[in-house]
Design a protein that fits this description.
Helix content is about 20%, strand content about 30%. It has about 130 residues and is an alpha+beta fold. A hairpin with an 8-residue loop joins strand 1 and strand 2. Pfam families: PhzC-PhzF (PF02567).
């Protein structure tokens, strides 16, 4: 099996080990649904996300979210943590907002005046 880099992100906290953790698997396009489910069980976290190439023209990247029991179309802290991981692994938005594709819809993340930051719940909204 191929090695897949992943990052555990502390969401909603700047202090290590105080946030809501999510594992983010980078470059997971060739993993099967079963492998993603198994990986999520292995991390033993409430959610594990998989960072993928987008399937829509407006998105910068795509995310799939798995729990210990199955896949979710959307969950708040996993989408935020995945955006942070995408940025820290060199992700560059095509426009003035980051557009994340997930099972529910596309989400937009806004930038702050001094650059991109770890996203907060107040800066994302479904694309209309």
């Amino acid at each position: 099996m191929t090695d897949y880099p992943f990052q555990q992100v502390d969401v909603f906290s700047k202090e290590p080990f105080k946030g809501n953790p999510v594992a983010v698997v980078i470059g997971a396009d060739d993993l099967s649904d079963r492998q993603m489910a198994d990986f999520a069980k292995w991390t033993n976290l409430s959610e594990t996300t998989f960072l993928l190439e987008p399937t829509t023209a407006d998105a910068d990247y795509r995310v799939r979210i798995f729990t210990q029991r199955g896949e979710l179309p959307f969950a708040g802290h996993p989408t935020l943590g995945t955006c942070h991981a995408w940025l820290t692994h060199g992700g560059k938005p095509r426009g003035d907002m980051i557009v994340q594709e997930c099972g529910l819809a596309s989400l937009r993340y806004a930038a702050k005046a001094d650059g991109w930051h770890s996203p907060r719940p107040s800066c994302c909204a479904p694309v209309r």
